[in-house]
Design a protein that fits this description.
Strand order of the largest sheet: 2-3-5-4
Mean pLDDT: 93
Helix content: 25-40%
CATH class of the largest domain: Alpha Beta
Low-confidence stretches: none
Number of helices: 7
Strand content: 15-25%
Structural class: alpha/beta
Distance between the termini: 12 Å
CATH architecture of the largest domain: 2-Layer Sandwich
Length: 192
């Protein structure tokens, strides 16, 4: 991947650059899946974070769970989530997502140093995701939750290598200068 390609992955709509990784161990919880699918998602999360060299634990001391995946048939089901407005910081999230005809939504929360503190993923499984293969969807969700990607991504070997490079302890947990893409590119070159 070229530095320009990497930079585009982390450049937001307002033109700002943000590449953040998790600064604390990840404690995932998954809501709304059948047991047979739950095992697939748990395994994918553990494998993805192990690939990045980042720990997965059962409980975060501050939050309990800090990586939350919500699966539902329709956005109206979100209205049953207690304190959803406080959890997301977004009033009327179910109505907003329904109004946008969204199939998924991802939200990051950050610690004071800018590293990822929490990630919430919401998926409406009655739309375009209805026929998604569980293992492929689990891999995609895991990759999208590992870094603060500004664009939707599809799993690939290049992105897996980029994630591994971003978790190199030599690099900062958060970067807001686009020149960071050059450092990531150099780490990618060092991996090959």
């Amino acid at each position: 991947m070229t530095p320009d390609q990497i930079q585009q992955l982390f450049t937001r709509d307002d033109g700002s650059y943000l590449c953040a990784r998790w600064g604390r161990p990840v404690a995932p919880v998954i809501f709304g899946l059948a047991d047979e699918s739950l095992d697939i998602f748990r395994a994918a999360l553990r494998a993805g974070f192990a690939h990045a060299g980042h720990p997965v634990i059962d409980t975060d001391p501050d939050m309990g769970s800090n990586l939350m995946l919500f699966f539902m048939r329709d956005w109206d089901e979100l209205t049953g989530v207690p304190d959803l407005d406080q959890l997301t910081g977004i009033p009327d999230l179910p109505a907003r997502l329904a109004g946008q005809a969204a199939d998924q939504y991802r939200l990051f929360r950050f610690d004071t140093d800018g590293s990822i503190r929490a990630c919430l993923c919401f998926l409406r499984m009655s739309g375009a995701l209805a026929n998604a293969h569980p293992a492929e969807l689990a891999e995609a969700l895991t990759m999208r939750s590992l870094l603060s990607f500004a664009r939707d991504i599809a799993p690939s070997q290049d992105l897996a290598a980029l994630i591994r490079a971003a978790y190199d302890p030599v690099l900062p947990a958060v970067a807001t200068d686009p020149s960071h893409a050059l450092r990531l590119s150099a780490r990618l070159s060092a991996q090959t």
